[in-house]
Amino acid sequence: MSVLTIEGVWKNFDGHHVLRGIDLEVHSHEVVCLIGASGSGKSTLLRCVNLLETVDDGAVYLEGQEITDPRADVDDVRKRIGTVFQAYNLFPHMSVLDNITLAPRQVHGIGRREAEEQARGLLGRFGLADKAEAYPDRLSGGQQQRVAIIRALATQPRLMLLDEVTSALDPALVREVLGVIRELKDTGMTMILTTHEMGFCRDIADTVCFLDDGVLVEKGTPEKIFTDPGHPRTRDFLSTVLESGRF
Amino acid sequence: MTTAWVKSGRQVERERVRKSRARRSASVATASTIIFLLLIAGVVVNAPGWPRVQETFFSPEHFVRALPDVLEGFMLNVKIFLIAEPLILVIGLLLALVRGLKAPVFFPLRALAIFYVDFFRGIPTLLLIYLIGFGLPALNLQGIPSDAPTLGIIALTLSYSAYVAEVFRSGIESIHPSQVASARSLGLSHAKTMRFVVVPQATRRVVPPLLNDFISLQKDTSLVATIGAVEALRAAQIHAAKTFNYTSYLVAALLFILLTIPMARFTDYLAARTQRRRGA
Predict the structure, then answer these.
(1) In chain A, whose CA is at the least distance from the CA of B192?
(2) Which ranges does the record mark as transmembrane (chain B) (predicted)?
């Protein structure tokens, strides 16, 4: 079943076209990896899906409903999507527990006790049980990012968007965050993630999409994209990545 | 295996030098302060006319006589302050929030908030107190208060809420857009994003400038004297007029200072705490 359908999406900022007619379909339990150079439009595409940006043309459907319709209820759409950002964006004035329970309590109407129980369960599962009362600035980058993932997860989204969630972390912390994402995949979560970690991408993705200058150049299984890319631009990009030692 | 640390002779010598230097600095500072104060006191007390200055401004006798009346008047200042302050906070925050509303329905409200701030911030506080204090009762409308303290509270609230609204607005605008993006991504509405994410953080940031405005307000409560309320300044003035001695003004000044100094230290403390937390 299709969770998300992107149809001919265009987006420009001040006349510069960041997305040029992107088509993409994401099925239930599928993990889609967006790769491409910085500025290729990966993050913008994710921001168009959770409506932080309005598209200039085309349409996005979430579970069959057109969410790019101006009459769509933005808050209701976002309730069903969990988003994790590169810079974590935790709320610095709230404890870890409050960060996680804010949306379940205020958006989904779950009682405090139930929300906290659920949050503690998630924290325990991802090795952060002793951090429930801590404030974000007392945590390492990896811990903060894991909390951010749990916060998005706590609303039980149908789809998760992870935008370069490891880019701000050192290698040891990258591994602990990637471990969490792998566990999400094992639970059957539908995800779209943008990443520069090609090894991880190859490992976890069901589908890899290569974006270049706002165009979805090539799409396929990781084996296909990484061993036998069909497009010269994909090949160029992968060889650059290879040279920089990120693969 | 770890080796226990035994202080080396070099380090012991270093610490001895540091300690003796610190002791010397402290004694030099103490001595110079004492000499400085003695000099000033000597110059002032030996200046021609000092007895008259002492009698006019620092008379213990007049101090004791004026204190009860001025203190009673000062209680009115405190009362005006305590009532005006919460009103100012609430109205100021509301104005700031209204200015942040983006939906077209709220355009008239937003325009009104902008006009309010422009208008009341642009008028001298004293003029506003005259306008409200003499103007409102002159309307002879039913239900309009006519006692000076209440009218003063209204005028001060109008004036200061305009300032405080701008303080809150700058605090709200200083919160990084990524905080809003992440709250909205969790499905929180604009109102809930403001309530749980933006305003709590903004308020923490604007506490020092807000306290600064409060100190200013504490003093400006004395402007209400001009429309007939007998507060500290007016009580002191009455005393001075009766006795031709100005010690009563000094009493009033002292009372204001006693109120504002703790507030100022509290502001410093909060600022230092924020600094510490950032550094940690």
Answers:
(1) A106
(2) 26-45, 80-101, 113-136, 148-168, 244-264
